[in-house]
Amino acid sequence: MKQASLSLRQQILRWNAVLLFVIVSTAILPKSAQASHPVDNHCISPASGEDLNILFGTTKQIITPFCNQVDAAEQWTAAGPSWFINTDFDLVPEGFVPAGATPLEDFVAKFVAIKYVIDPGTLQERTFIYPTSNALWIGTNAAGFQSVWPGTLSKLPPLSIGEHFVAVYWVFNAMHCDGFGEEAELFCLGPGEVPYAGFRFEVTPGAAQSH
Q: Where are the domains of the chain?
């Protein structure tokens, strides 16, 4: 089965977009709405000072390039940057077959699961797969483009104290395209397991994600 990976260019664009999304979307929320979703953990964006736990509505510790510590007793999640998609199929690669009227419908129809390989290539290697469900996070940014983030599907178990690495795969049953371009390697994911992100992080006693 063909594997398509997220290019470095895509990763930079997606992280920049999600950070901008955090800045704008939290700024337009009423203060009462922000306060209505209290969380125990706080992954703070260094670009905006905003809280990704509140944005995604999760109490789990989130692993990102800027939140790379986890409490030894805590469950956690990771997914990489959110995937933003066009409102319509304005541009797609030749031969692409959508599974819905919009890129969002196509993503929902084709996204199967999020897969984690923890400490790959070591004696401690473990694999976890979380199938898609209605817990999949879907939001809309200020430009009107919808975004998806499957980190809300997973609840990874506590790990031993020390350094770890997690490889994150997004799994699709067919090629999904975001509607922004004709180059499949830049604007599409799948089919199969897509090596979407990888994070080196540290598990410590009482790690605080707020700094």
A: 8-204
Query: DSSP labels for the chain?
Result: -------HHHHHHHHHHHHHHHHHHHHHS-HHHHHTS--S---B-TTT--BHHHHHT--SEEP-SS--EEETT--EE---S-EEE-SS-SB--TT---SSSSHHHHHHHHEEEEEEEESTTSTT-EEEEEE--TTSEEEE-TTS-EEEEGGGG--BPP--SEEEEEEEEEEESS-EE-SB-S-HHHHEE-SEEEEEEEEEEEEETT--TT-
Mean pLDDT by 10 residues, the chain (211 residues): 44 47 36 40 84 92 95 93 94 97 98 98 97 95 84 96 98 98 96 97 74 40
